[in-house]
Amino acid sequence: MMMKKLQGFFFVAFLFAADVAMGQQVVESSFGKGVYVVASDSSFSMKFNARVQSLLMFEAPSDNISMDGMTSNWLIRRSRLKFSGFAYSPKLKYKIELGLSNRDHGGENVHTNNTSNLILDAFVSWNFYKNMEVWIGQTKLPGNRERVISSQKLQFVDRSLVNSRFNIDRDMGVQFRNKVNFGAVATRQALAISQGEGRNRTNKNDPNPLNGFEYTGRLEILPLGEFTGKGDYFSSDLKREETPKVSFGVTYDINKNAARAGGNLGSYIEDANDEVIDSVLTDLNTVLADVLFKYKGFSLLAEYANKSMTEGRIEGAGGSIINNYYTGTGINVQAGYLLKNNLEPSIRLTKITPELESGRDLQEMITFGLSKYIKGHSLKVQTDFSFLTETNQVSLTEDKTMMFRFQVEMGF
After folding, report:
1. Domain boundaries, given as residue ranges, for the chain
2. What is the pLDDT along the chain (412 residues), one digit of tens a residue?
3. With left for phi above 0 and alpha for psi between -120 and 50, is residue 56 left, alpha or beta?
4. What's this model's pTM, rounded to 2 decimal places?
5. Contact predicate 120/98, CB 8 Å
């Protein structure tokens, strides 16, 4: 039944897009730029994009690299539709992004009405004064740079372990964005107030909602001026910056009474009977810092993350619940050099140090990547090879894994 509804929805969306394209003036249509139309009276616009990532992956313990010890997976990692534009006024914009692959849905549970969670982004932004904007709806919080960079525009096949363990992801709420330049120095500020429990939660929030919200602030400083073509928000130096460019960013986030293991990601906190607990009196605090540098084909990204919790308890029960949350620190450093033929070798070093009380293992990963950009990030082939070492913090025993990935990305 769900699949039939989805098929019907996309059929209607296709007919609407076709009708709009025929009935309005086509302003722009080229590979990688989407299909862009504007109403004849300039009362609205719509840009339509679609993309797909096909991923092949092999994993094996480093002491048993054989067909017997190897696992494999071939899947559609991401498949997405995106709609954006303005309505009524160029200062009033919108964005809708839908995830079609299983990995995009995030799983069905009672908190999302037991349905597939297709909506990634759905928000309206209003440029109400100079460079000041307010965003209302669901989208990415202003977190670590690797997370805010689109998954279409990554330097490696996928994001690092630091991002998967400590990022603050998407949420529903309101955001305020601003840009201020001081001579050649550019700065950007963002402030978000959100529900704190992730994408499109249908259940009601904490009985005292102000004590259950999430608050996020981010500051970026670009001392050498702005990157070419918004290059601070796509990986690799595809613009081959003629002068050095650097961006420093820092984010602080507090998720009050966090109901999930990662704040607004991960499993919901449960009691000893595996029942989800609604009244969790624990705050998660996240500090994220990053620096991005680009110059003449060379790019460097370094990120630091720390997630900690207040001494928390479950209402009606005593004792610490730290082992339910993913807390600790992470460091990620990656660099690449874009050759003249648009082939880019790259390397990434990642280290995860969970808090000892969490009972989780230390993780260290080194990844060697190779990307061929045929049409920028819109058409590319990527592969990487990783060594992962996981160390038990008590016994100091180690498990080592090798991973190979190959991916083709196409988007228009």
Report:
1. 44-411
2. 444 445 454 544 544 454 544 445 555 578 888 999 999 898 999 999 999 999 999 999 877 766 677 899 999 999 999 999 999 999 999 999 999 998 887 666 677 777 778 899 999 999 999 999 999 999 999 999 999 999 999 999 999 999 999 999 999 999 999 999 999 999 999 999 999 988 887 776 655 555 689 999 999 999 999 999 999 999 999 999 999 999 999 999 999 988 888 888 887 776 555 555 655 668 899 999 999 999 999 999 999 999 998 865 544 444 445 567 889 999 999 999 999 999 999 999 999 999 887 788 999 999 999 999 999 999 999 999 999 999 998 888 999 999 999 999 999 9
3. beta
4. 0.88
5. yes
Tokens describing residue 119: 């909506």
- Which class for 172: exposed (0-12), middle (13-18), buried (19 or more C-beta within 10 A)? buried
Q: List Cα–Cα distances, 213 to 172, 192, 193, 194, 314, in angstroms.
A: 10, 10, 7, 6, 17
- In sequence order, what are the residues at sequence separation of 6 or more whose Cβ sits closer than 8 angstroms to the Cβ of residue 203? 110, 111
Give the whole-angstrom CA distance, residue 74 versus residue 68.
18
The span from the CA of 341 to the CA of 83, in Å, is 32
CATH superfamily of 44-411: Porin (2.40.160.10)
